[in-house]
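From the shared-data thread, chain only:
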Amino acid sequence: MRSSKVFILSVSAVLAVLVLTGCASGQFEGPTNTSPTASGWDLSPRRSDAGRVVVDVQPLGLENDQEFWDFNVALNTHSVDLEYDLSQVAFLRCERGRDYEPVSWEGSPPGGHHRQGVLRFTPLDHPSSFLELVIRDVAGVPERVFRWENQRASVPALAPAPVGDAQPAPEPTVSSAEVASIYQEFVCPCCGQDIGSCTCGMAAERRTLIDQQVAQGASQGEIYQAMFQTYGAEVFFDQELAAGVQAEVLAALPDERPVLAVEPAELDLGTVSIDAGMISATFAVRNAGQSDLTITGLQTTCGCTTAALETSQGTSPVFGANSSENPTNWSAVLVPGEEASLIVTFDTLFHGPDATGEFRRAVSVISDDPLNSRLNVSFAVEVTQ
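Structure, as tokens:
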């Protein structure tokens, strides 16, 4: 009789371990395929474990003749209520920068700690060298970006110079295979990782710019210049390389140009109680150049932070971390020497009632400054109970 009890207890323990292992693994039920498709798509699974929620995603097929493109999605946690409507917080992004909403979510309903199902999309009507499935605002993470490459994406070559022109040979263009190593040279402002390793929306945005340059037949030097002019020196891990790129870009620019200046570069907001709610900081924005400067937008590095610009023309709309949701039809012009105020607001309660410690956030001011179209400033704050 005792041996029977021991056997029953042993079986129960094994079953419990299997159940717990299944919950923690995040593996999908049913068949999955990780081999490249006939059209060159990599179908291997992707994972994000930020914000105490593990999200696993895998495409079930990405052929053009399919009626739908389905993505297996599994969410697992032990501390967060998964109350999200996946059909409302997810979208598909291609190399053209367009966002595609899902047709449906077919799976477990909102709520609980473990959910699984299928996000269904209409296939693209054009080729793309990559796809990104973006899931927004789950467990305080502004964007989780899951990316797949098309291994057969073609890269156009630069047109040859006319015969007889005494010109140096152009710098070789970058192939798709070399892109991964270029990603590693640039830092994501959200997490400090290289943009090839980070899954957030800001890293995805920077990869997209590189991919577009590669698709246009750009050389490595041209990619460096495009990244510098769009994101500034801060995007480079190697600051000596950034200084060299800056000198190359500057040498080709006229003296009469707009110059964006934002001061101070960093603010320390000290220590605040978590119950403070919204706290604000002000930065001075100035056109330090010799022609009109047009500011076209702002962007923050986290959903806890928003920004607006006060100019002589009025106050801008509020901008946040999600570039796809930020206003696109706004701009403000600063004449040479004119100043404006950048108002940055931080929500101490955004990450929950127990989120204390030091927070560092950055804000980008986006303009038509030809040397650096995106200038970053930052602030630090210590949040206590």
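The mean pLDDT is 83.
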